Amino acid sequence: MKQKIDKIGIIGLGLIGGSFARALKNTMNIKIYGNDKFHLQEAKKLGLIDEQLTDENISMMDIIIIATPVNTIGEISKKILNDIHPNALIFDTGSTKHKIAMEIHNHPKRDQFLLAHPIAGTEYSGPSAAYESLYENKINILCDTEKTRKDLLKKAWYIFEALKMKIIRMDSKEHDRHIAYVSHLSHISSFMLGKTVMDLEKDEKNIFQMAGSGFASTVRLAKSSPDTWTPIFMENKENIIKALDEYLENLHLFKEMLIKHEAPKIKNQLKETNHIKNIIDKLNS
Hints:
Elements: E1 7-11, H1 15-27, E2 31-35, H2 40-45, E3 51-52, E4 63-66, H3 70-83, E5 89-92, H4 98-104, E6 113-118, E7 139-143, H5 150-162, E8 166-170, H6 172-200, H7 204-210, H8 213-218, H9 226-235, H10 237-259, H11 263-273, H12 276-284
Parallel strand pairs: 1-2, 1-4, 2-3, 4-5, 5-6, 7-8
Antiparallel strand pairs: 6-7
Helix pairs in contact: 3-4, 6-10
């Protein structure tokens, strides 16, 4: 059912918030207001927003999207909840959810907030990295939806479907556990692989000349913004540490098989892990 949405405010105008701005401007007849501590003027020049979001006009917004680093979302959310009108919706885009859920748990306007995590992004950051189709056919995880007012949940659903997103629901605590395995661990692996190669290979020319597509694709995530990812790792550290323990154990076992020259065991381990191909192919089908 079509929803009446005229004004959307976006706080944080980098890749995630900026891509929402581009997609919404090109999909719906709305006015986009935005603010960003570091990139406001750049976002204005790029045409991501129509006007600046301010303390004076925030109460006019129908929807507010918070796309800032995860360690700032809780405090920003509480402040914005105080200022919005009774039928406005706020949703965030953070990669961790449970701590945010706990921070806003007792707010009198908690039912005007939706915990959302669009599984979309690139290794690039800032307003210039934003593009309109970032969210097309991407998963959007909505957490603890029973705590969001039903009419506002419908409004969010309308937005996400207009952007062609695939919606799933999940408990916020479970979200953080699962996302540590399939997202956060892969970013750490990429960063640390990049660091290891740079530590071992002091001549950058050798990296440039000899690195193949496998290395480039594996370390692609190491180009991601430290300002974004350091808070994510800290916010979800308990789940990440458990994931790292398992990962390090697997690396240790692989090292032992190499030391003992156990080629059949290595081959068997690789064949078992090949099953991940079927899972990824299903995901992309």
